[in-house]
Structures are given as structure tokens and as C-alpha cells.
Write a structure and sequence with these properties.
Chain lengths: 400, 381
């Protein structure tokens, strides 16, 4: 038997400490929430100074909760019932809310009077509610370590009763910090890097390097599906697909094998920076983590980084592979990432990649061919795909 | 020949395609025409939809640990269930059990195995209401019985044979596989798969596309492919898949299940009324069981008016019924089903099968009954 909740109370996250930027943050968070919950047409919203109230109007509470759990910028949220500020209604509703909980659980009543003129004080309210519950169920009180905290917020016109607090993800609402461009491969790391930056408020747009026919339509679809998992916090997610084959082949024709990957990454950075500038992005983001593969040694990172002047964020630089995998599983991207479709990064792997490349050698190799026009060509021919949360890429809805 | 102002009463035989299904099917034919086995982008997309349809149907039927084989209809599904399984598992035995009231695609598959593959088949008879005797089934089971196939709803008289009981009995008393022809059950009665290894379904019986059906098969059952060739459909059914038909099957099954409750309620009322009115005609005998039949099938015999004469006379009045199984098209032959039910000879010769549908109103029943009365008066010998 499920108690029928009518409201969800959303508590704001880090942004409550932001002073005069508060309004901007609150607006962004509520807009992100509304966008993510767009498909629930009957929801209504009420924004106050420190809360966002979502009025369910009979929409499926579990489905809404599942989405709220993925939104950045929320500290926590609770399912709530709203009653008149009347002690009998309060007691009765609080009781209804938890009466079916398993008997081994403990509870504590936490009444707060935001309306100080209410006739009963918090202690009284706590006592009335606790008494009703103790007399009618087998639940026990534990004021120190309780399973169920029954929060009662008394306001002048209404009282909200909540029995469960869901932890939010915290962080900043995505988009509040500006836009950044992610170099998205199909690997395990890059989607995690995207999520971490979104959580710091960056709106992410992704660049993906495709080398058909060496890379298949399947590998592109894999990237699209990964991007799909990262759209809940953004109104849309732009995927910029760069046709990389010609440039990649030129690199292999002119550069000695050990440096091929390094030079390839230098070109990718150049292309990504161009696309970022074109699209008014403020920084690049990669999923690089120190020392994992040959191109991710400090020397390599430094030599690759030299090609761009934009800041490059590497949120995973200090993480272990296992930590990254864990995060990817929570995001739901891990299973997609391990699908065996090659992308540009894995397709041409040299036998002995240089782990400590020299800057001057890179420049020598690059001088052998006109890479600039090939880079320009890549930028010019980049295709843009726009993904939106919950809007499937095709007409499955009408077919099934 | 106009299709307007007619009374179509032969839904057990086939149904008009649902407009929404036709819409989707047409769109699929136009847009998703690539071969689902092709590696290029178009083929991949068709394949994705094809596999999605397969998974959707499995979900709709709440099946766990089953495969779904798309076929060209229930006849192929039945042939596969019977021949493919018997042949692939003959090292376990060569005895098979079925009933005498099965659809020709089941009955004749068993006969084929007897005639050409050295199998021994026991055919169970039914009682006058069309029910099987569970004790008789138990006695017929042997250590070398490999397959038992008993239909869920009989297509001629509408009898419902509950699969839970007989399949449990088979599993408890033998190591045979179980199969049920559920063609007339889908969309009419709740489906039960508990001890059932395989079941056959047809799209056009539920307002879907003709030439389309499927067989559900429990995992780990060995089958010998009927059609050899490419490795489509788990290597069990060669040939380019009929992707548009298979893709729209998911919608077809979904609609059939969604409409079931309301359809059953409507047909229950119509059925009750039809029985009441028919009982007022002294020449009418009932072949269907009033209490243990699906509401949409009413098989009667009108004394002294031969089947073909009744069919033609009704057809002239733009009412279309049949004389039992359309797959046994020779109306002059006796109905194997009625024979097994030990129906009297006069019933055999005068049998007609009325199928009810949700387009019919009470007045239509009145018109039908009046027509039957008139035909009796005019043509009874």
C-alpha cells in the first residue's frame, strides 16, 4: 500500500551559498528540472526562496523521482503531502504516511514552525504525532538513530508533511558556468568526464572523430546512445561528428609509427579548439587520466596540450580506472562503452607508441605534410546531431 | 461484390486489418524496405526495429526464457513446433500425442511424421462438449513420448482447453515437450504458459497482416530447421525476414491484448443474446458448449438444411458464415472435430459456424436469426 504523495519538495544545493547570484542559480535549476520532466504534462511548479515545489497532479511519482535523482544542483528532495494547518489533519496524515512501514524501523518526528504564531509549539506537535503512531503501529521512536524522519513544516496557510528525504546529486545546475566542448570517444572515460563537468555547471557539447569505413555506423550509434544518457540535465546535447579518415591516413603516411597517436591527438585538439571557438565554447574537456594508455603520460599530455590555447579540463586526471568504471556504471554508460566497436582512437594502434615524445620531433613530422588544410577540411565538414532528452532518434513511438 | 452493408460473421477464419495496423504496415513497407540482414545503415535500422518487435512481443506476453520465431503464419508455426521438435529429438523417443480436434496444420503435421518419419501418434478423442480426458492423457503417456500438442481454443466449436492442467500432467508424468495452438486464444482469453514449451500464434486472426505469425519456444529446446538456407531466426528459419510484417506484429499483439477485456464483455452479451434467440428455433442444435466456449464462436446445426445450402442462402442475404474450419474447405467432408465429439450425422451435414465480432449490434443478431428462420422455412427438406 503506497501513500499517495501529491508534492515533491526540492531543496537547492550548493547555490544557496551564492548570495546575489542565487536568483540566477534558482532559475537555472528550475528550468533544468522542468526540461527534464517535460514529458509529465500535468506537473505544476512553485518556486520560492529556498524551495521548489513540484505539484504532481496524479503523475507517476516513481518516474518523476527517478529523473530528479539525476539532476545536478539539488541538495535533496522529499515526497510530501500538503494539509491544512490543523493538528488533527497533521496527525492523521503523518500516521497514514508511515503506518505501513516495516515494524523494525524507528522514527522521529521533526516538526518545524515556519509560522511562529501557530497555537501548538514544535514539541507539542512532535508529541501528538508520535503518540498516534506509537499507539497504532509497532514502530518505535529513536531520537538519535532513526530510519524515518517525519518532517512537518508548519506554514500559515498549509503544512507539509514528509517522511522520506532523497539525497540529490549536489553540484551546480548544468549550464550555470557556461559551455565547454568535450572530446567524446566511445570509451568508458569520456562520458564520465562529461557528467563531472555537467555537475560543475558546464553545458557540454561533444566532438566525436569518425573514420569511416574503418569505424562503422555501429560505433557512431554507440556514441549517440552514450550522449543520450547524458542529456537529462541539458535542454539539448549537440554531437559534432568530424570526418577524420583523410587526416588520419595522412598522419600514417607521413609520421613514423611511434608518434602516430601523439600527432593524431594533436590534430584532434586543434580541430576541437576550432569547433569550440566557432560554437562559443569556453574550454575543452577530455577524459584523460594520468598514465592509463601511452598517450596519457605527462609528456604526451604536455606535447598535445601545446597545440591549443584554450583551457583544457581533465576531470579524471587523478582517478583510478576502477573509480571511473564505478561512476560509469552508475551513469548507465558502462555497458554501452564496452560494446566492441572500434573508434578512431583504437583503430590504428601502433605497436610501440612513444611514451615520452619530444616537441621538436612532433613539429618535424608535422612539417612533412600540409596538415592545416586537412584540419580546416575536417572542421568545415563536421556534421551536427542534436539529441534531446527522451526524444528518441526515430519514429519508434508510432511503429510500436 | 460490395463490402458495404454486409454482415461479416467469419472472423474465426480471418479478419479485416485494423486501420492503425495498416497505416504502420504501409509506412514500414515504404520506408523500411532494406534487408534486415544487410550490414549497411538502412539494413541495421530495419534489423533494430525487427529485434525490438521481437522483444516487445515477449514482454507483452510476460515471457521469461523463451525465444520468439517469426513465421509466415500459424500453419508454419505449428509445422515447426511439431516437425522440427520431433525430428530433432527423436533420440529421446518416437511417440507423439495430440487430439482429434486440432487444426489441420497440426493434425496433418502429425500425420506427416507418421507416414514419412516412422513416428507413432496417439490421437485423443474429446467428449461431447469438446473436452479432453486428463486420465486418458495420463494413460497414453509413455517413457518414449517426445511431444504432446493440444490446442487452447478449438477453431470450429470454440471449446476452451485450459493448458495449465494438461501441461502440468505431462511434465509430472513424462519428459515430453508441450505445445499448444493458441491462435484462437490470443485476444480472447487470458494466456497461460506455465508448463508450456511452445505456442503458435497468427496475426490475421487479430486484425493483423496476413501471412504473418509467430511461435514462442522455451530456451534450450532443440529444433531441426524446416527451411534450410541462411541463418536468419536463430538458424531455424531461413529466408529474408518479412520485416514489415514482423515489425508491425508488436503493435498487433499489443492492440489485441489491450482490447481484450472490453471485447470479451461486448461479445459475452452478444453471445448470450444469440443463444437465447437461436433456442427459439426448434430446428437448431448447438455444437458449441454454451458454458465452456469462447464467446465469439457459435457452431450450430440447423436441421434439414444442408451446410452448403445454408451458407449460400445466407451469403445471398449478405451474411457470411462458414461451415467449420476454412482450412478444411470441402464442406461435404465430415468435420473431424464433430466426429471426435460424436456429434450425430445430421449435425455434421447441417453445421455452420457463426463468428461474432464487436461491430455487431443486437439488431444484427435479430436480422441473422430472422434470416435463418426464413431459410429453414424456404429450403428445409
Amino acid at each position: 500500500m503506497q501513500f499517495k504523495y501529491e508534492y515533491i519538495l526540492v531543496r537547492y544545493g550548493e547555490l544557496t551559498t551564492k548570495g546575489k547570484n542565487r536568483k540566477v542559480f534558482v532559475n537555472k535549476l528550475s528550468r533544468n528540472i522542468r526540461t527534464a520532466l517535460k514529458s509529465f504534462e500535468n506537473l505544476d511548479y512553485k518556486i520560492t526562496y529556498d524551495r521548489l515545489y513540484i505539484i504532481l497532479n496524479d503523475e507517476n511519482v516513481e518516474e518523476v523521482v527517478a529523473i530528479l535523482k539525476q539532476i545536478y544542483g539539488l541538495q535533496s528532495f522529499s515526497l510530501a503531502a500538503k494539509v491544512n494547518t490543523d493538528i488533527d489533519e497533521i496527525v492523521e496524515t503523518a500516521y497514514e504516511m508511515i503506518k505501513d512501514e516495516p515494524a523494525h524501523k524507528t522514527f522521529k518526528v521533526l516538526a518545524r514552525r515556519r509560522y511562529k504564531m501557530y497555537e501548538h509549539n514544535s514539541d507539542d506537535i512532535n508529541r501528538f504525532v508520535a503518540t498516534k503512531i506509537l499507539q497504532n503501529t509497532d514502530l518505535k521512536v529513536d531520537v538519535r538513530n532513526y530510519d524515518l524522519g517525519i518532517i512537518i513544516e508548519v506554514e500559515e496557510q498549509q503544512t507539509y508533511i514528509m517522511a522520506q528525504v532523497y539525497e540529490g546529486l549536489g553540484g551546480y545546475p548544468t549550464g550555470i558556468s557556461g559551455k565547454a566542448t568535450m572530446l567524446l570517444s566511445g570509451g568508458i572515460d569520456s562520458p564520465v568526464a562529461v557528467a563531472l563537468m555537467q555537475k560543475r555547471g558546464l553545458f557540454i557539447e561533444a566532438v566525436h572523430f569518425a573514420s569511416p569505413p574503418y569505424t562503422s555506423a555501429e560505433s557512431l550509434s554507440k556514441v549517440e546512445r552514450l550522449a543520450d544518457k547524458l542529456t537529462v540535465n541539458q535542454k539539448h546535447f549537440r554531437l559534432l561528428v568530424v570526418p577524420f579518415t583523410k587526416l588520419q591516413l595522412a598522419i600514417y603516411d607521413h609520421v613514423d609509427e611511434p608518434y602516430a597517436i601523439t600527432i593524431m591527438r594533436r590534430m584532434m585538439f586543434r580541430i576541437a579548439e576550432q569547433l569550440a571557438l566557432q560554437n562559443k565554447s569556453l574550454a575543452l574537456v577530455t577524459g584523460e587520466s594520468l598514465g592509463q594508455v601511452a598517450s596519457q603520460t605527462v609528456e604526451n599530455i604536455s606535447v598535445i596540450n601545446e597545440t591549443v590555447s584554450m583551457p583544457v579540463f581533465r576531470p579524471l586526471i587523478g582517478n583510478d580506472k576502477l573509480e571511473i568504471i564505478d561512476y560509469a556504471k552508475k551513469l548507465g554508460t558502462y555497458d554501452i562503452s564496452i560494446e566492441p566497436y572500434d573508434d578512431a582512437c583504437t583503430i590504428f594502434t601502433p605497436k610501440n607508441p612513444a611514451t615520452k615524445p619530444k616537441q621538436n620531433l612532433c613539429e618535424e613530422y608535422e612539417a612533412r605534410f600540409d596538415w592545416q588544410s586537412l584540419v580546416d577540411e575536417c572542421v568545415a565538414n563536421t556534421e551536427i546531431k542534436v539529441l534531446k532528452f527522451n526524444e528518441q532518434l526515430n519514429d519508434d513511438e508510432t511503429i510500436f | 461484390m460490395s463490402y458495404k452493408n454486409i454482415m461479416y460473421l467469419d472472423n474465426t477464419s480471418t479478419n479485416p486489418i485494423d486501420p492503425e495496423i495498416l497505416d504502420t504496415y504501409t509506412k514500414l513497407l515504404k520506408t523500411y524496405y532494406a534487408n534486415s540482414g544487410a550490414i549497411h545503415g538502412l539494413g541495421r535500422e530495419v534489423n533494430r526495429l525487427h529485434e525490438k518487435s521481437r522483444q516487445e512481443i515477449i514482454k507483452l506476453l510476460n515471457l521469461v526464457n523463451y525465444r520468439l520465431l517469426f513465421t509466415s503464419g500459424a500453419t508454419e508455426a505449428n509445422n515447426t513446433a511439431i516437425k522440427s521438435v520431433a525430428l530433432a529429438n527423436q533420440d529421446r523417443g518416437k511417440h507423439l500425442i495430440t487430439t482429434n480436434i486440432e487444426h489441420p496444420s497440426v493434425h496433418n503435421s502429425f500425420q506427416f511424421l507418421e507416414q514419412y518419419c516412422g513416428f507413432e501418434v496417439s490421437y485423443l478423442d474429446v467428449d461431447q462438449d469438446g473436452n479432453i480426458d486428463l486420465e486418458e492423457l495420463k494413460r497414453t503417456l509413455r517413457p518414449d513420448t517426445v511431444l504432446v500438442s493440444i490446442m487452447n481454443v478449438n477453431n470450429e466449436v470454440g471449446t476452451i482447453i485450459n493448458p495449465s492442467e494438461w501441461t502440468r500432467l505431462v511434465k509430472e508424468n513424462s519428459s515430453a515437450f508441450t505445445h499448444s495452438d493458441m491462435v484462437q486464444a490470443l485476444g480472447n482469453i487470458p494466456l497461460q504458459f506455465e508448463h508450456l514449451d511452445m505456442a503458435s500464434f497468427s496475426a490475421h486472426k487479430v486484425n493483423g497482416v496476413k501471412g504473418s505469425g509467430f511461435l514462442i519456444i522455451r530456451d534450450h529446446i532443440k529444433l531441426a530447421p524446416l527451411l534450410s538456407g541462411g541463418d536468419q531466426e536463430y538458424g531455424l528459419r531461413a529466408g529474408t525476414e518479412n520485416a514489415p510484417a514482423n515489425i508491425v506484429l508488436a503493435k498487433t499483439v499489443r492492440l489485441a491484448l489491450e482490447r481484450q477485456a472490453q471485447k470479451t464483455e461486448q461479445l459475452k452479451q452478444l453471445n448470450k443474446y444469440l443463444y437465447e434467440q437461436l433456442k427459439l428455433i426448434p430446428e437448431v442444435r448447438f455444437n458449441s458448449s454454451e458454458t465452456n466456449s469462447v464467446y465469439n464462436i457459435v457452431n450450430i446445426s440447423v436441421m434439414k438444411v444442408g451446410s452448403e445450402i445454408m451458407l449460400n442462402a445466407l451469403s445471398e442475404k449478405k451474411m457470411y458464415v462458414s461451415a467449420g474450419s476454412t482450412c478444411q474447405s470441402d464442406v461435404h467432408k465430415r468435420s473431424r472435430v464433430l466426429m471426435s465429439m460424436q456429434a450425430p450425422m445430421e449435425n455434421q451435414e447441417t453445421r455452420i459456424r457463426i463468428s461474432l465480432n464487436t461491430d455487431l449490434k443486437k439488431q444484427d443478431i435479430d436480422i441473422l436469426v430472422t434470416a435463418i428462420k426464413e431459410i429453414v422455412m424456404q429450403y428445409a427438406i
